[in-house]
Amino acid sequence: MEFVNRTLRWQRVALGALLVGSAVGLWRSTYDVFNTFKATVIVAGALLIAATSALRVSRTRRLLLPATPAWYPIGAFCLALVVATAASDRPLLSIVGRPGRHTGLALYLVYVFLFGAVLRLYRDRSPAELAKVLMAAAAPAAGYGLLQATGVEPLGWETVEGGPPVFSTFGNANFFAAYLGIVFPLCLWGGLTLSWSPAGRAAAVIVGALSLAAAVATTSLQGVAAAAVGTAVVGGVWLWTSQDRRVRRLRAPLTAAGVALGFLAVTAVATGAGPLDGVRANAARSLETRLGKWETALLMFRDRPVLGSGLETFADWFHAYRPDWLAAETGLRRTTDTPHNVPLDMLTSGGLLLAVSYLAVVGFVAWALVVGLRRLEGEQRLLLAGLGGAWIAYQAQSLVSIDVPPLAVLNWVLGGAVVVVATPPRLAEITLPGAPALPKPRPGRRRKARPRPVPLAPANPALLAGVGIATLAALWVATTPVRADLAAGQALRLGARGDVEAAVAAYDRAAATAVWEARYPAQQGGFLSGLGREEEALAAHQEAARREPRGLAHAINLARLSAELGRHDEAARWYEQTLAIDPKTPEVLVEVGRHRLSRDDVEDATALLERAVALRGDEADWWVALGRARSADGDVPGARAAFRRALDLEPGSQEARQALGRLA
Known about the structure:
Shape: globular
Strand content: under 5%
């Protein structure tokens, strides 16, 4: 029995380590720095948990699996993931996911495994220690974020991704704020529970205060809103189920105060009062950028409602499906690889099959939470409220966010914790060949039932070696993305130092390691173009386009490079591909139109330029190009109108003035 308990303890340590690593882990030598390393930590932790299970089963010859109805919606979800991957135009990408996101088949299956691991590891042990682990991870992350908010940057970052420079170990202010918002309800539970010492409760309150302050400092509404939703769950359960007479007397006034505080907070954010002005402004910008992505996702779903377009392929179809107003407004300045809404992402990735099964999983956990809150009492009910409040906080922020590794793993781990507390599953035993017989219970009555000791089979060196080799092989495969990213990071540093050939070789290693990923050959192509090595750059961009056939940047780069090298037929072919990928963006229409005009394809050039100015007619040089196209087509009045429009927009345009003079 001691061996079994020891392996379970090892697994709980591995789970805690991956949760901490997924929050605070980063690797500055890699290109991505943040999320690829975090995803690797999660996968490595899951593999260690699985290997420990295999070790335990190899000695006990018994497999204990949590028996819960949760496996029905989860099984449907896994099946839908496999179908969406099989139906994808880019199955390798759908398995691994895009760098910095990694929301592909492999990582989602890891999340499901962790859900089951929580059910097994905490079936007979309180998952309160998971709350402790998450608070322990939030403390340094929040502290680092607050340092950044005061202008102190220990790591000397020069560029950031998305939002203000308060991003801590997440690289993105919204993700950082969301994480803190999810953990905050656990901190509130820690401050309210009577199962902890006064020092432990005080520590939870301090971590909660730091987390909330750091979330506000990011000026991201995502974290504040998530914290508010989770707090309402924990506070409501504590207030209305407490047996303390003093608390019961304060129910009505505290509820009224909570509602009033919530109303004031919403009003303060809406009006931008005091320090919340940045939160309001950032929320308005974020919502504005997301509306177009959500509309695009719905347009994609309309065309592929059952199976979707494939996991992680949103970016491949974004430019083709985004509405005209979004294409006109943002042009080529802004693109995206996700709709920034997890349920919508499921809908576009796997259609109704994936979205409905995912919502079924969410619905099951929500059902278990309600059942548990009604069934449990006292500290167990309050613990469930804390875990459930954090899980609901994740669901709230997921409506405007992405399943990046440090957030997605919380969904599944917290969901498993909710289920195991609310509806503890029995353990179904599968006896394998060679299992030693269990000792028979002694006759007679016993005051307290004790678990029977589990006899161990002799250690099998060949079996143990097989488990070790399989684990190492799986770890090698799992580290493929981070090894490729490490090579790309090295290429950047070598290029900055002027070590050109070593940088090119490092890009080659990155591309050869992650054979599905188009980013690395594209980066190599850009690097070579800057050196004037156009032929080599062309080959690199061709490889990127082969890996990502609907990559807009690759097609444009190939078209421009081919034109520079005088390969006009190739340039025409790549411009045709550019137009097929993005038939709506005005900048694309203008560039393709100008190229076709240079090739004397006047009719098509005119049509493209007219579509461009119809979408956005505030660029003087576009009207000049249209005027030239109309003039070449013999439409003199139309050409004059175009040149005059150019002069209206830019009175000093000599090009438009000279063209008008020639027409006169």
